[in-house]
Every structure is written in structure tokens, then in C-alpha cells.
Amino acid sequence: MDHFTRELIVLNHCRGVGRKMIWRLLHRDPNLIRFRNYSTRDIQQFFHLSQAKATIFVDDLHQLDANKLLSMLHAQQITPISFQHSSYPKLLKHIFDPPYLIYAKGNVSLLNETKMLSVVGTRHPSREALQIINKIVVPLIKNGWTIVSGMAMGIDGMAHQQALAHQTIAVLGSGLNHPYPRQNHFLFKQMCAAQLVISEYPPDARPERWRFPERNRIISGMTLGTLVIEAKEKSGSLITADQALDQGRDVFAVPGSIFKETCGGTHRLIQQGAKLVCDWQDIIQELNWRME
Fold first, then answer.
1. Which of 4, 27, 98, 142 is most buried, by CB atoms within 10 Å?
2. In 3-state terms, the chain is what percent helix, strand and coil (to 5)?
């Protein structure tokens, strides 16, 4: 393990600081050579932290054992990948707020696939949802597209299930030792064994409500486009779609009945310029130019 990644792992386990502060630290010390010499006062001044947070951070920094952390990751078959590593997803590097470190379990080579599409939607799909997935997503899978989603109940899990025999990546809103939801625990094990599961959070991080909107930027940021299948007007799927648009990626939406609550969000996306999708070829035609 290179020095840079070792230090990032330690930083990722420190309390008192968040992702934005770590990025500021990286701008000040790009190779992570000097930062261990910073005093609590330096941390306060350089990064505008309170004394309490700076003290917690410095204490953790000097108490955490990098070798122990690495041994734990190795024992759990978890691979840490820094943003400088060749396996780090290329598209993800170009978003506004990329994770500086991701933890991966499974087939890490999937991160280098170029034909990636994120598929998101409601946790309470209609009876037609599986038919929609079979008509639009399954042909994409069979044509070599890697499906990226969040392993949630409903559309996410259904998309992963259909891609298990091919290629799919799940992005968690928790650490890899605490996959969520529990109902998809068997799917998680299948994904780790034959596909790939990743997270920006330390393996022992538990699922927290605020982490799921955060991870959505990774789902959209890794892929060329995002397909939304059934989503309410206020939902996590629309957060993912909004982030995809902010990242300059294509957004696709499947229309449905105006009487279904789970179609309100997809219809709103179409009104705002998302491409209306009736067939898998609609997606291919839009994305082909991005790969040229």
C-alpha cells in the first residue's frame, strides 16, 4: 500500500472533520507529507475548525494505527482506492465533489468499465416496473452496459438483480460492514461475490439518513447517464437526477400514468428536459456520442 493511500485511510477514520476539510488539507499538502506535523492550533487556523473539533481530529490522527486499519481491510476483503489510483472511476474524478477515497468489495475491475448507466427509482414499484426493466434495462445489460444503483428496495434492487449474471455496481450510503437495507442482505452478498459494492464511508460506518443523498452524487457521477423509473415528486431518485444534470450527464425518464403518484417525479423530469424513454434504443442513441 502506497503512503498516500495509507494516510487517506487514517484521515477517513478521524473524527471532527468531513470530506470538504480533507480536500482543503489535500490542497495544502497534496502528497500528505507535512500534515502530521500540524498542531491543533495550526488545524484551527488553516481549516477554520473549532478548538473542540481540531482537538478530536489531532488526537485521532496520532492514535489511529494505519497498519491495524489495513489489516482489518485485508481481512474483510475490502480494497481501498484513492482518487489518484488507476482503478478510480474516470468519470467520477470530474464531478464537483468527488470522494477522495472509496472502499470496494468484489470485482474492482468493473470500475474501469466505460459503458455505465445508473438506474434509480421508487422503493415501492408498481406491477409494471419489472416489465419496464425487462423492456429497457435488460437489453442494455445484454449489450454490455454496467448498471449502477444504490441497492435500495424497489427499482434499485430489481435493476441489480437483473444484472447479476452480467455487470452491476452498488453504491452504499453506509460502510461495507453495515449494508442497508437488511432486506437486501442476500443481494449484497451476491454482489460482493460476483459483482461490486463500493462506499466512500469507513467500513464500520452505520447507515444515516444524511448519507444517502450524499452517495447519490457517486451513483450519477460514475455513469454516462441516469435512468429514472417511477419516482415521486420528492424522492431520492430526483436528487440523483438533479445531481446528474449538475454533473453534465444525461437524464432519462420513463413516462407513466398521470394518476400514479410514482410517476409524478418522472413526468416533472421530462417537463424539465429529461429525455422521454420508451425503448432501450432511446438511451443508446443519446449516449453513443459520449463514447466516441
1. 98
2. 50, 15, 35
Residues 6+ away with beta carbon under 8 Å from 11: 17, 22, 25, 32, 61
Out of 2.30.29.30, 3.40.50.450, 3.40.190.170, 1.10.260.40, the CATH code matching 108-290 is: 3.40.50.450
Model pTM greater than 0.85? yes
Write out pLDDT tens, residues 113-152.
999 999 999 999 999 999 999 999 999 999 999 999 999 9
Give me 157's grid cell: 434492487
∠ Cα 86 88 93 (to 5°)? 115
Model confidence pLDDT, tens digit, residues 24-45: 999 999 999 999 999 999 999 9
CA dihedral 64, 67, 68, 73 (to 10 degrees): 110
Query: In angstroms, what CA-CA distances link 158 with 78, 114, 175, 229, 275?
Result: 25, 22, 22, 11, 22
